């Protein structure tokens, strides 16, 4: 059965939804609930269990028991077959998942539906990883006939803390790592967008996942999230979110020296040289920020444009931004949805209002949208021109549809300005010159860099950050290291 009707979906409406622990739906131990909204309308769409330390503890104990249970003896082939069944079920239920995500966090259907291929591909990617978790045999110079090897074993119970800007996608990095490696997990989705995470966990059980391998505790970051991060029986934490919260997770990890995988904030440089193909670079640079209304960790929010084309580029960027359809994403023609919450709206409008005072020139947008959209948290695609790298809008992560265009004179200056930040997540260069492109590829301090494109990600290649944007690549050759221990073994026959 697919449930793609907004009025009858059992997740929507007044019936309270619980945590999912040990394969069973259960309320918070103290019975408390919280509301989750549709940011396009401001309406409460569901009530969820407000997890406490006690709920997290119950989920972690369940995950530990499952880790030590029959799941441990599942062969790689069995985990692979499970992931193939999961792939089937997610494919069958994809429209329903996309709809839940659109209602819960506002990204338009045009976006949530478009991720179908990426998500299915990611599941298959991790299905193949189950059989590729090899250790190594190593030469040694020991006396006697001792054989030495490095054995890889699953790390144990993972705590997965997920942000709200795209849980339909971001949960798979964690679920893929957990199911490929044979770990178990307690997921804490963001309070503003938990529904797709709860629904996927149900589908996993439908596919035959043993109880307790994947558990979901809903609730607030400072309550359920913090309890998970500091729990002494959680072996690893995978976290995506703000650098400020990432710092708290690092502090909490000292309790039991948890290893972490952190993908934090960004202020990524997007560098356009005068020789770039502007027909490609203008929409590319615009959507490097406006996609998901700017709520993307790797948004190219510092747009460095070579001075000789600055004014032309700003004019074309502004014209392009006016063609974007902003609105309630249930309309399939809508390209940009609302911000996630009233809190994020205030935050983004605070940056916009502060920019003029610092001397940035508003070239387009700059206001909250009213009329039919007044009940939601909509901001017009906004462009500031002639920004300096030291202005607040060029230093801090805004996480809204706001581009700061910063002129530069030559490649050395572009590189110096691009690297004058604490962050190091994404970045791009647009040019026809291979030499210029390679100078940026080697010189920009970031975990990911695109040339003449932006934001394309393949699970087999991976994506990650450096400096204050975190550590531990998602996807690629090294992702599974975050879910595995290495044991050095010395065997004397
Ligand atoms: P956040 O980093 O606080 O939230 C992300 C996740 O962490 C949520 O699941 C939240 O419940 C959880 N969390 C919050 N406090 C926690 C704690 N003390 N211990 C454990 N888990 C905790 O981000 P927030 O407050 O929702 O958004 C604020 C800003 O963070 C945004 O404006 C944006 O700049 C940045 N952000 C960046 C994201 C990224 O993908 N890089 C994603 C979300 C937010
Ligand atoms: Mg919501």
From TrEMBL:
It comes from the Bacteria. Gene3D superfamilies: Aldehyde Dehydrogenase, Chain A, domain 1, Aldehyde Dehydrogenase, Chain A, domain 2. The keyword Membrane does not apply. InterPro entries: Ald_DH/histidinol_DH, Ald_DH_C, Ald_DH_CS_GLU, Ald_DH_N, Aldehyde_DH_dom. Keywords: Oxidoreductase. Residues 30-489 form the Aldehyde dehydrogenase domain. The active site is at residue 263. Signal peptide: none annotated. GO terms for molecular function: oxidoreductase activity, acting on the aldehyde or oxo group of donors, NAD or NADP as acceptor. Belongs to the aldehyde dehydrogenase family. PANTHER family: ALDEHYDE DEHYDROGENASE-RELATED. This is Betaine-aldehyde dehydrogenase. The lineage of its organism: Bacteria, Pseudomonadati, Pseudomonadota, Betaproteobacteria, Burkholderiales.
């Amino acid at each position: 059965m697919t449930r793609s009707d907004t009025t009858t979906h059992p997740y929507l409406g007044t019936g309270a939804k619980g945590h999912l622990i040990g394969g069973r739906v259960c309320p918070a131990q103290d019975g408390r609930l919280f509301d989750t909204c549709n940011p396009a309308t401001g309406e409460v769409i569901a009530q969820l269990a407000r997890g406490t330390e006690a709920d997290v503890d119950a989920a972690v104990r369940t995950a530990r028991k499952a880790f030590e249970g029959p799941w441990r003896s599942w062969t790689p082939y069995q985990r692979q077959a499970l992931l193939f069944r999961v792939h089937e079920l997610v494919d069958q239920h994809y429209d329903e998942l996309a709809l839940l995500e659109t209602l819960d966090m506002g990204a338009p259907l045009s976006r949530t539906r478009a991720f179908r291929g990426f998500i299915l591909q990611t599941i298959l990617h991790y299905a193949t990883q189950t059989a590729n978790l090899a250790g190594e045999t190593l030469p040694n110079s020991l006396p006697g006939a001792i054989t030495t090897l490095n054995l890889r074993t699953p790390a144990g119970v993972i705590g997965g803390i997920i942000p709200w800007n795209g849980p339909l996608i971001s949960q798979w990095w964690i679920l893929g790592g957990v199911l490929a490696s044979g770990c178990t997990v307690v997921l804490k989705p963001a309070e503003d967008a938990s529904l797709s995470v709860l629904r996927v966990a149900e589908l996993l059980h439908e596919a035959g996942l043993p109880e307790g391998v994947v558990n979901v505790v809903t609730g607030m970051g400072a309550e359920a999230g913090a309890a998970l991060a500091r729990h002494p029986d959680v072996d690893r934490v995978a976290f995506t979110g703000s650098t400020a919260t990432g710092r708290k997770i690092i502090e909490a990890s000292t309790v039991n020296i948890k290893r972490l995988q952190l993908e934090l904030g960004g202020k990524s440089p997007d560098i356009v040289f005068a020789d770039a193909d502007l027909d490609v670079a203008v929409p590319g640079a615009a959507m490097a920020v406006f996609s998901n209304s700017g709520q993307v960790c790797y948004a190219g929010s510092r747009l460095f444009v070579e001075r000789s084309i600055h004014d032309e580029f700003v004019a074309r960027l502004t014209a392009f931004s006016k063609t974007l359809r902003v609105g309630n994403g249930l309309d399939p023609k809508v390209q940009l949805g609302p911000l996630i919450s009233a809190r994020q709206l205030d935050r983004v409008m605070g940056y916009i209002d502060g920019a003029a005072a610092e001397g940035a020139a508003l070239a387009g947008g700059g206001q909250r949208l009213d009329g039919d959209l007044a009940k939601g948290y909509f901001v017009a695609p906004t462009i500031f021109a002639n920004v300096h790298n030291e202005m607040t809008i060029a230093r801090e992560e805004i996480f809204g549809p706001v581009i700061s265009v910063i002129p530069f004179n030559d490649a050395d200056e572009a590189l110096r300005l691009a690297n004058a930040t604490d962050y190091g997540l994404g970045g791009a260069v647009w040019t026809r010159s291979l030499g210029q492109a390679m100078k940026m590829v080697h010189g920009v301090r970031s975990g990911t860099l695109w040339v003449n494109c932006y934001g394309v990600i393949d699970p087999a290649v991976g994506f990650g950050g450096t400096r204050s944007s975190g550590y531990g690549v998602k996807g690629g050759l090294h992702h599974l290291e975050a879910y595995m221990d290495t044991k050095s073994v010395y065997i004397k026959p």
